[in-house]
TrEMBL record:
It comes from the Bacteria. Gene3D superfamilies: UDP-galactose 4-epimerase, domain 1 (3.90.25.10). It comes from Desulfosalsimonas propionicica. This is Nucleoside-diphosphate-sugar epimerase.
Length: 51
């Protein structure tokens, strides 16, 4: 899976992630889906008053 994020106001305007190397070399397997991880991250930030 590749994810590309563009835009924003920071000095980094895009980032790309590719899990293939981690899968191949480390046997990495995500425990949660991308959508589940985003929801959990949002709740974490909200619980700390950061969103």
């Amino acid at each position: 899976m590749k994810v590309l994020v563009t835009g924003g106001t920071g000095f980094t305007t895009n980032r790309g992630w590719d899990l293939q190397r981690a899968r191949n070399e480390l046997g990495f397997r995500p425990r949660v889906s991308l959508s589940q991880g985003l929801v959990q991250t949002m709740k974490w930030y909200q619980g700390r008053g950061l969103l």
